[in-house]
User: Fold these one by one.
Assistant:
Number 1:
Amino acid sequence: MSIVRVKPEARWSDAVIHNHTLYYTGVPENLTAGAFEQTQNTLQQIEDMLKEQGSDKSKILDATIILANADDFAEMNRAWDAWVVPGHAPVRCTIQATLMKPTYKVEIKIIAAVD
């Protein structure tokens, strides 16, 4: 079975595809924004990556959301709930952890099916 690495660099690849499954982690680009906007930004990146690789957000199987601050849970959920495809919500967990960039409020890791 082949492994496709999307835009590989020395330390990481933007995404990896194996056995019709895409693995991707998104981090926000709008680092001065609040949790709602950072979540929207990260979700848009996820959607763009899925589209580039022949998939879409209805095919997300699993999502792990990491929040730097648990107080941002409601704002993250507000963005998520407006974005997720009704009837196609993936398995999801949300955790609080110190993120490696102090300006990150959210990081989202997904696993999705690819045709």
Number 2:
Amino acid sequence: MPDPSPATTAPVYLSLTSAAARFDVSRKTIRRAIDRGELSAVRLGARGDLRVHVADLDRWARPVRNGAESER
């Protein structure tokens, strides 16, 4: 199977706007999770734009079963 081209692979890091859109929450919600240490982020470039790793974002938004949080 051929390797996927960089243009077709999903990004590993998302902007706060993209991270918020992924779960239909506000940028402020994502920013608060970062500030509380619930979600890790990295700063990129001279402006220091924040990016969130997709795997960390998916772990932060853990599934719920029958109204109770599931254990992983």
Number 3:
Amino acid sequence: MSGDLDVSALAINVMIPQALRWTDTRRGEAFTLTTLNIRLLPDGRLAAKAYGRPVAGGRGAYVSFPVPDKPELAALIAEAATRAGALWAAHRGLG
């Protein structure tokens, strides 16, 4: 049966540590990025987008931002993916 399964997405959400957070602007509004959404692509590579809250407060729009090419963010993404993989591998089934 496992060869017949079509798993289309594996994604995790990870909080960005305070020291690694950054601010970016979209549609004239500044956002502090606090969360990463990390996806495992079918070819085994990882993809990540950042999400956050408007600096001015409020809920704001749910918009994604690119993750800057910084070694410490790449390390966070890799560590989170490895941890998620270990948790998935150790699952104990439903209930």
